[in-house]
Structure formats: structure tokens, C-alpha cells
Amino acid sequence: MTKTKVGLLFGGRSGEHEVSITSARAVNQAFKDKKNEDKYKVIPIYIQKNGIWQGQEIGNQVLEQGKPLENIPENKKLLWKFPPEVEEIDIWFPILHGPNGEDGTIQGLLKLMQVPFVGSGVLGSALSMDKIAMKKAFQEVGLPQVKYMAINRSQVWSNPCIFPKLCDEIEENLSYPCFIKPANLGSSVGVSKAKTRQDLEKALDDAASYDRRIIIEAGVTAREVECAVLGNDNPKASVVGEITFNGDFYDYETKYTDGKAQLIIPASLPEEIVSKIQSMSIAAFEAVDAAGLSRVDFFYVEATGEVFINEINTLPGFTAFSMYPQLWGASGVSFPELVDRLVELGFERNKG
After folding, report:
1. Measuring CA to CA, how many Å separate 126 from each of 45, 87, 100, 241?
2. Architecture of domain 4-101
3. Strands annotated E in 58-190
4. Which of 43, 105, 260, 272 has its CA 20 to 30 A from that of 306?
5. CATH number of the domain located at residue range(s) 148-218 in this protein
6. What's the rounded Cα separation, in Å, for the pair 282 and 105?
7. Which residues contact 159 (CB under 8 A, 6 or more apart)?
């Protein structure tokens, strides 16, 4: 039996490089499961932090050691050269989190290569990565959201007369607490919670250092719940899970440090709320033209019964304690079955 050669693409140039390695190790292990080992051959392709691609020898080395490659070559001419193993790949499985990995850029490159790949295409990836564009897509299909404002870096780094007026407007429209986020970073990188004017000014300056587009969201007292989506044109929603944590909010450290957050799967929610979240997850998936996989995050205001969509993540974490694979595990789809299904969906989506 001829094995399908899967190009496991990981690492990358974003601040989530290390998380990508951890996710890739878990995916690689799932392909080694007895259900998959006779069907697939994994070819790990590692993208260094400087953007240079490395073949399976170094790719396997990084997967084994679980940390980034040291002594990185700096020859920029190598940026345009792919390892020879790339020619063998039947389908790509990108597990690159953050900018240059889930924002449509790598998807565009893979599309140009004319080789199928797992996950959303250029449009779905780009729309979902930019929180402002994403929210506009949600608004278009009537998905309820908390109040928000979208601004540019130029408004933050403006003259001393304009910036105070901007802060006044934010306070008037959104009040405190509010959350300030770079529009195009994932995993809560650069996200701050502001409770005072001083917090707000600092948070805006910090977010502007990460991205030229910034979003400010009104804070809400709510439970944070998530739902996983799997499929292409006929997507299915998983059971709903809940995240609880002791920190002020679900920041990067809490998200990726084992034991900092607790995942409750399935979440203890009224049946009608679960159904609502599942249907909203599919609506969000379709609104941004996602494919293969996504995790959709919500705020559930228990006091009023309201559900607000927060965001969609088209390339969610695949670490051992990530919500996406755990949600599907609780829905009856094991990790090895999940990666197998994602490959099938990748071939399906990229036909023709």
C-alpha cells in the first residue's frame, strides 16, 4: 500500500514558534498511531525563526528535542529555497500559529505550489486572523458581539491633542474594563485589560507596537466557552467546553502553561445554550469561509442568557492540553482519527 506523504509544516516566524513545535509534536505522534502508520508517511518541514526552511533531518531533530533550532543560518538567499523533500509531498499539514502561518500568507504559497493542504484557504485565514475584518464578517450575518471600536496605530501615535480625545471616545463608548488587542496576533499576544485611563493609554501604546490595526472591546462578566468545528461545506460542531482560570484574563501564559487554566468538557450549560453555541459556531465558520478546522470562542452571560461570539481561530492549538482536540475527543473523535479526517478534508477542499 502506497503511503500518503504528509508535509508537516511547523515553526515559523511568529511569536508562537515554540507553541507550533509543541502542536506539531502532538500531530506527528497522532500520525504514528497504529490507525495511521500504514496510511501516512510524515515529512516534517521546519521553518526557522528567520524564515529559512529545513528538511526532514532537522525537522525530526526539532520534533525530538521539542525546542527551536539553535545556531540558525542567516543566509537570506536560502529564504527562496525549499528542501528537496518538498517535491515528494502529497498534502501539506500546516501547524503554524500566528502571523505568516494562519493569516493567509503561507496558504497563498501552498496554493501556488498546487499541492493540497489542510485547513482554511487564503480568504478564510486572512479574514479570521484580522479581528476587525472578522468582526465585520460576523456582523454581516447577524452574530451578536460585545461593543467594540477599531482604530489605527496612527491615532495612537498621534500628536498630544488627538490622543486624549481618542481615549475620551473609548471611555464614552466602551467604559471600563475594556480589552485592547492587536488586530492580527493570536494566542492573546499583546492583549491588555484596562481598568483606568492610565491602563488604557499604556495598553494602546503596547498594542500599537505590535500592529497598525487595533481593536478595543467592552468587558463583560461572562463565562468563556468554546466550540470546535470540523468539515468543509457541511461542517459539524463538537460538544461545548468551558475555560476557567485564576488570572485577570486568559492571557498567553495562562493559555500555554499546563495547570494555569482548567478545561471543563463538556461545559455545564443549559441544552438550549449548547445548541445555540453550536449553530453560531457553524454560522461563524461559514461567514469567514473557513475550511477543515476551527475553534470558535464565546462569552456566555449567565445572568441574562446572552451569548456573544468572541472570535474564530482557523488554526487552533494542537498541544496535549489544547481545547480543539479535547473537544473532539469528548465528541467521539480521537486525536489519530482527527488528523486522518483533516487530511481527507484537505484533499476534498483542494480538488480541481
Report:
1. 23, 27, 10, 26
2. 3-Layer(aba) Sandwich (3.40)
3. 91-94, 148-152, 178-182
4. 260
5. 3.30.1490.20
6. 24
7. none
